[in-house]
């Protein structure tokens, strides 16, 4: 009689594939939109000092810890964050804290998938000529804002469900279906195959836009100060006095932290498909450096410079949504006929950056559903589509002022990530043990982690994270908590997050029973076998 | 753009590009595993 394996075995096709998949997860909208805004507001070029220090002290060490823990857990035959954290943390508490490693990617996907569909729709509008802002430069800003409100439905709740099928819903369905299909195809045939095409394509798009921006010269003779060199200066001229400001260090650590996708539960899942012989040290460093390439080389040169050249200092200030979706369309309009194609390239690049990230958010949850509920790839993809789709529709419906999106982004996309990353680095450095952890990291490694990193992982990274987390809580938490009082949508969205957390916790409970029944050492009491099953 | 601005920009770009090139040269080159026990490069 044919015995069917309880969980379908998946693995990466190539080493470069997993590196590009992790890098693709890390490279997202934040590289192109959030990073330049943070730099401009926190000392320009001087921001790069705390930024690179945070990269070395927080980003790369936590990344190595996640890669190592993921592969370590994979050797026990599991691939989901709760199971792996239960093994590393040797018990139930860590396992249930690990549920955050499912909540974070799943809830972030609910709104990130929507933003991704905005990018695709903007790209389409540029290709089809629908993004024209009219012939009056004085009205460009207003027209751009109207386009943003139309695409996002941020004018009022439920607006994109009224009347005929709204284009934004159509684009969301296309993007959602593409994500689910690629994840259903599996690691090698889906995520890896797509990322191997998408990452180079993204780089080509970025180079095209970068070349155009750097060759803009001084487009408006009436404003000779608005030129490319001064645009770069607006971004990079250092304000060294900012280095004495705690907020600058907080912002730098936060940017590195969110940019590298640490604390997402993604790297742990991706690395769990590696074998003991596979390198994680060089791979982790390469993925992080790829992210830095996109962030510093492209994000640091394109966005603010383009906005400054046409709109001056006031137009180049700000960040993320405002800069990306409202200011830059004005910039593209000023570019004349070429702006239409540069705009299309820009938004298609953002779409690629977003989809390589969103795929990585779905895979950990799919892997969990498969191994916790014992369903196949089709069943897991179906359940995932149901839950992620329902959450996505919630965010789409409550679109006024992007209230649902903003709430999820704060409580899960910021707060949840901080908590998860802090727990992970403490588990690695103190529970698994930094010496054992680094020995594990060196299995199959092609690069030796410097000895100083032992001290960094054990003391500096947790302390750095705790300080940043405390600063974040002091600065931002009170306003968000008080903001809940007068906002029904925000409160209801928090309830949705709690419900999803409850659902995942119950699934983990049943998953634990299943893992034990399969003979998996879920409490990490013994050393892993040579290769997990 | 001030001289300090150029310095910070070029230094950042050089740092990132050197890191990326060094990493991908190792990734795409022949495997050079280190010995997990001694943490020294394995002898051929």
Key features?
heterodimer, A: 533 residues, mainly alpha, Amino acid/polyamine transporter I, 74% helix, disordered N terminus, B: 44 residues, 0% strand, disordered C terminus
Architecture overview:
The complex is a heterodimer of chains A (533) and B (44). Chain A is an all-alpha fold and 533 residues long. Chain A has one domain: Amino acid/polyamine transporter I. Chain A contains 21 helices and no strands. In chain A, helix 3 packs parallel to helix 11 and helix 16 packs across helix 21. With 44 residues, chain B is mainly alpha-helical. Chain B is built from one helix and no strands. The longest helix of chain B is centred in the middle third of the chain and has 26 residues. The C terminus of chain B is likely disordered. The chains are: A mainly alpha (533), B mainly alpha (44). The interface between A and B is medium-sized, with 36 and 27 residues.
